[in-house]
Design a protein that fits this description.
Blueprint lengths: L12 H49 L1
């Protein structure tokens, strides 16, 4: 059977299962990494906002 024809599937079922498992693993790792980076960004924004509020109070009171 000729592969890569118009109607033929590009991968066999076994290859497709292996690919989907591999892509699922990398997607999970990528999701964990994105979650970590998002958390770091949120912490950074909280710290910056606290510093900005402290500076504003300092300017207003001082």
């Amino acid at each position: 059977m000729e592969r890569g024809g118009f109607n033929s599937p590009r991968f066999s079922a076994k290859e497709f299962n292996m690919l989907s498992i591999a892509s699922g693993v990398t997607a999970k790792a990528s999701l964990d990494y994105q979650d970590l980076m998002a958390r770091r960004l949120i912490y950074l924004l909280i710290i910056l906002s606290v510093l900005i509020v402290a500076a504003l109070f300092d300017v207003l009171i001082g």
